[in-house]
Amino acid sequence: MPMNYAKTALLLVLLTVILVAFGAAVGGRTGLVMAFIAALVMNLVSLWKSDTMVLRMFKAQEVSEAEAPQLHAMIRELCQRGGLPMPRVYITHSPQPNAFATGRNPDNAAVCVSTGLLDLVSPQELSGVVAHELAHIKNRDTLTMAVAATIGGTVSMLAQYLQFGLLFGGRDRRPGGLGWIGTIVAVIVAPMAAGMVQMAISRSREYSADRMGAMLCGNPLWLASALEKIHVAARKIRNEPAEQIPAAAHLFIINPLNGRGLDSLFSTHPNVENRIAELQALAREMGVTDTGTAPQTGPRDDGFIVSDGGDAAGGRRGPRGPWG
Q: Where are the domains of the chain?
């Protein structure tokens, strides 16, 4: 745990420097001072509210036990096995199958899965994915991940703002600043800064979460099968919020970026084939030889989808819940 806090502190310092440098490049001394003050406020807010900010980035919707009883039951059982408190449960309305966890500690954690994930994987595979995210919570990775996402996302949004100003009338030279030259430099540096944030999150944490999650759910092959499905689908389906905030890509179980442009240069996730191989090796160690899953071929109607308001005894349940 002390190492995670040290990583968080290092990221805060690094990203504060980046924000202040952007401010100085565009606004000179005035911009530097304003950026420094904004960075201090943002650091304090991100430490306590980073989970809320991340969930808002991806328009995640909290779901109650009444709305998603089987999903809650699965997560509760896994938490009991891992000695964790029950996290808040969220769903993000994205066709790309993916999942992430956030929160400054296990007592203030949240697990979020996408509608695309619920449509794609079997209950056993979903159990493996959720167990992976709970492992991040147990390892206290989520604070560092959320802080990096919120501040790194701000860096990316600032770059977009500067680029817009450069293209539409931002060529004036500001007193004490570097004018449009500084703006160009900031726009070029921004993607690199986002990449630095991503690379600062150790890839080794994914292997650790894979191993712990596989043991938590009881079958490494469930997670291996899910990773393969998610990886293939994620390459074909864009995750628009993640594409707009690439510094938050490290939150997800599989890189949500499509690998176009600079995306592939700053991937924070280990090679999927290597992750699957590690899980298969763990399965052999545990004596597990069968996934025990049935192929998922269509929309789910097994209680993992949020209900559309029907009563528990016989209410209607649409294949996609209230999001249609």
A: 2-286
